[in-house]
Amino acid sequence: MASLQLIEDHISCPICLNSLSDPATLPCGHNYCMECITKFWDKEGHPERCCCPQCLRTFHPRPELSKNIMLAEVAEELKKKGLLSQSPTHSCAGPEDVPCDCCLMDRKLKAVKSCLVCLASYCQTHLEPHMNVPALQWHELVDATLHIQQKICSIHNKVLDIYCEEDEECICYMCTRENHAGHDTISPMEARANKKDDVTETQNQFKKRIQKMESKLQEL
């Protein structure tokens, strides 16, 4: 099963995640469906320059693509034998999921991480450059979120990773030197825990008041 999964991964298009259709091999060695990579480059809007979506290697001028006949024959033979699935094995994004910003399919895949530098969300496949490309490895990744812009300071364009107790709002480290200088600060996680404790305490107080009122009603 492991070897079959490895074969399927190599005969699948990294863009649509389906089995390769009219496979084209880029100069860097990565393979894509002819239609998928063409649409990806057209979407980039650079007619004379393009890059590989996986390794981000840039090509100038844009390479002329041709069908990889050998790879196409291998993929077709595996399909006939029922060794390749005809549909993506990755889960598509549902109504409550965060969709991948790079998927070019009609139904985008579910994003697994959001990048606070790129301000974009990625499925497992399109997250690969952030794992392997040195220039992207320093980017801060968080769990996929629909409201990624709200995690960035609108003034300094930095991550909101500090909570100001005095002003009761999330700020970035640059804010601590300016408008919030000298204020008591804690981590957002600690602030969330404190707020949760406050809510629990308030709920307990209301329960006691309700119980007291019900007791008086019983007496009446």
TrEMBL record:
<keyword id="KW-0479">Metal-binding</keyword>
<protein>
    <recommendedName>
        <fullName>E3 ubiquitin/ISG15 ligase TRIM25-like</fullName>
    </recommendedName>
</protein>
<feature type="domain" description="B box-type">
    <location>
        <begin position="148"/>
        <end position="188"/>
    </location>
</feature>
<dbReference type="GO" id="GO:0008270">
    <property type="term" value="F:zinc ion binding"/>
</dbReference>
<dbReference type="Pfam" id="PF00643">
    <property type="entry name" value="zf-B_box"/>
</dbReference>
<dbReference type="InterPro" id="IPR000315">
    <property type="entry name" value="Znf_B-box"/>
</dbReference>
<dbReference type="Pfam" id="PF15227">
    <property type="entry name" value="zf-C3HC4_4"/>
</dbReference>
<dbReference type="InterPro" id="IPR001841">
    <property type="entry name" value="Znf_RING"/>
</dbReference>
<dbReference type="InterPro" id="IPR013083">
    <property type="entry name" value="Znf_RING/FYVE/PHD"/>
</dbReference>
<dbReference type="InterPro" id="IPR017907">
    <property type="entry name" value="Znf_RING_CS"/>
</dbReference>
<keyword id="KW-0862">Zinc</keyword>
<keyword id="KW-0863">Zinc-finger</keyword>
<feature type="domain" description="RING-type">
    <location>
        <begin position="13"/>
        <end position="55"/>
    </location>
</feature>
<dbReference type="InterPro" id="IPR051051">
    <property type="entry name" value="E3_ubiq-ligase_TRIM/RNF"/>
</dbReference>
